[in-house]
Input
Amino acid sequence: MKLTFPHLGNAYIAVKALLDELGVDYIIPPFNNKKALEIGIKNSPEFACLPLKINIGNIIQAYREGADTVLITGGCGPCRFGYYCEMEREILQDAGYDIGFITIDAPRGISLKEYFSQLLKITNGINIYKIAKAVKNTTEIAILVDQLEKLTFKMRSIEACRGDTDSVYRDFQQEIRLINGAQSIKKYISQTSQKLTNIRCNTGIKPLKVGIVGEIYTTIDSYTSFNLDARLGNMGVEVDRSVTVSNWVVEHMLKKVFHLPRDLKYAEAAKPYLGAMIGGHAQETIGNSIMYSQKGYDGIVQIYPLTCMPEIVAQSILPAVENDYGIPVLTLIIDEMTGEAGYLTRLEAFVDLLNKRREMAASDR
Ligand code: SF4
Output
């Protein structure tokens, strides 16, 4: 069995560590690119979500390199994420690709024994303690990678020489693919973190702060978002993103499996506007926008793929949040036809607006 898995931002680093630890053979698909998107568009229904189309592209590219089984996480409704696994399986079957699927899921009411038996499917009977250790290491790596990414958000906004952070981070993304084993991966993350901390910075500046909210795939995946984090960072803006891979692993997988209380601060904040989970990350979008505004952020960028139902609902609520909390919100909707130039112009205009607001607030004091 040769496994593969679709991309979701930096999630491949944690998945790679898990499979290394379990001694499973795998192929990482090429990073998200135009070709993957074209293959996905060609093989998927027109109105499927953009992330599903790219997933299909990833899987077919990995299949062509020799992968025969897809490892995928299950999802719950009410949006289309709940059907991803089955849809992808059927799309690939109809297109003539002979590829199996293994779904790692954490449905309600699952016992620890059942959860680990799902993992046993890919491990050829490795003992349960080794699996538990691999899961622990994988979770730690997902957290470390997110912390590293957060550090790039900070350093980009204050670096003295534009491009230094991008250069360190680009090297990291290329090199990490070649490093095997959880301990070596952790060591390399720590070395990169040190390199980032050593970047020369401008002192005494107070960068604009922008919170990124929206559908998980488009907020996390740099190809799909046209490098939203880095673009804002290179305009001197410090960004933050509450929805991360590690947050998803801990809050949506592990805490469910171990029946631990979840961190639902965002749901509490969103309650006056959206009191129920409607699928995807709509409640997080509303709740995190409110919490960013309470923390003094200058603006919010919401990003989501065209036809994403939960985020369409969130978008219709955000003007009320904008009004009640006095924080500007920019919404970016992405599909395969989105032009980069128009996207960038909107982003630049939004940053100009935020700078102007700050200047006006300072002159009013
Ligand atoms: S959150 Fe949006 S993009 Fe993701 S599966 Fe649901 S509808 Fe599709």
Q: What stands out?
A: The pocket of iron/sulfur cluster is lined by residues 49, 51, 79-81, 215, 279-280, 305, 308-310 (CB under 6 Å).
